[in-house]
Amino acid sequence: MIAQNLENILSELPQGVKLVAVSKTHSLGALMEAYAMGQKSFAESRAQEFAAKAVQMPQDVEWHFIGHLQTNKIKLVLPYAHIVESIDSERLLEAVNSWGERNDKIINILLELRIGMEESKYGFSEDEILAVLERAEEFPYCRFCGLMGIASNVDDEDIIGNEFTGIKALFDECRIKFSNLSDFTELSIGMSGDWRIAVKHGSTEVRIGTAIFGSR
Ligand SMILES: *Cc1c(COP(=O)(O)O)cnc(C)c1O
Question: How far apart are CA 119 and CA 124, in angstroms?
Answer without folding.
Answer: 14
